[in-house]
Amino acid sequence: MRSTEHPPAKGAPAQSSIRRLLGWLCFTVLMIPGAAPGMDFKIYYQPQLELKMVIGEGRIQEGDAEKFLAFAKMADRDDEGLVILVLNSPGGNVEAAFRVVDAMDHVRVYTTVPDSARCASACASILFASGERRSVVGTGLLGFHSCYRRDGRSYAEDSLCNEIIAANAMQRGVSHAGINRFVKQYGAGDMAWVGRDAACKSLQGLCKPGLLEIQRRTKTALMQSFDCSKLISVQAQLICGDAELAGVDKALAEVYGQTMKVSANKTRLRADQRAWFRNSRNACGDKACLLRSYHLRIDELKRMRSQ
């Protein structure tokens, strides 16, 4: 069983040569040792951007290219015509990762690693590096190390794997120095975690920001996308991902707290608030409905407080 982990080497053969070499690496794995299997995709609607984006999480494995294509068909495109792919993965099978890249090239993808997300090994050096646009935003991290070959309990650097990954990355505008920076220093049991500053300033060509990062409003929405996608209810996701909704949610909390302080019947007020939450707020499925519900409740609480 061969197993592999990250950064590349020298040379930049044509894409067809990369594909031929991949046939030799069918059992190569490029990921954090011991990471749990299973890459899943889902659609997340980002209300601030008014875009459906794809969230990709878990170990990269065979069949992921087909799954990605199915979800990409349900996603929207940004102003540059790209599908946004949010990555949170420990890496995985190298051949499977390049099959996903083929699918990404067909779709045209904006790869991003936002707040709380980590993209390591094959995820960082293959998937992330292959986006037409690429960004690390907020607290997102990329993890790099050399490809390795596992033989029983021992590990050895896999130079062929490194070469293939380097060739692909360099064809996509990543500098030779940037893609090879961590090969010698970080082996199978190590990981160089790189944040936005290092990834986008020190590793030439690795980041390739899109239009969404130009404006603070859209950049913040992109930054929060992974965290917001984790919330269970539609209402919570909408409020988390939209500055205006987050603002009225905060305003309501403040007005409710002030009203509670002067209320003569706190038990009744708590019950009324729970009823509003259940029957009004949670009955909404879009931003307009939530705004109406919040504003009506805020006005109602202010009237109570003034009586």
Protein model, in words:
It is a single chain. The protein is an alpha/beta fold. The protein folds into two domains: 15-228, 2-enoyl-CoA Hydratase, Chain A, domain 1 (Alpha-Beta Complex); 233-306. The chain has helices at residues 15-22, 64-72, 94-107, 122-127, 159-171, 176-180, 196-202, 216-223, 225-229, 234-241, 243-262, 266-279, 287-306; strands spanning 29-31, 40-46, 51-57, 83-88, 91-93, 109-113, 118-120, 133-136, 141-144, 148-151, 154-157, 192-194. Helix 2 (64-72) links the parallel strand 3 and strand 4. The termini are far apart.
What labels would you give this structure?
single chain, about 300 residues, alpha/beta, 2-enoyl-CoA Hydratase, Chain A, domain 1, 2 domains, 3-stranded mixed sheet, 13 helices, 12 strands, about 45% helix
CATH topology of the largest domain: 2-enoyl-CoA Hydratase, Chain A, domain 1
Kindly, what is the distance between the CA atoms of the first and last residues, rounded to a whole number of angstroms?
75 Å
Structural class: alpha/beta
The residue fraction in helices comes out at 40-55%
Element string (H = helix, E = strand): HEEEHEEHEEHEEEEHHEHHHHHHH
Biggest beta sheet summary? 5 strands, mixed
Query: Mean pLDDT score, rounded?
Result: 87
Total number of β-strand segments? Answer: 12
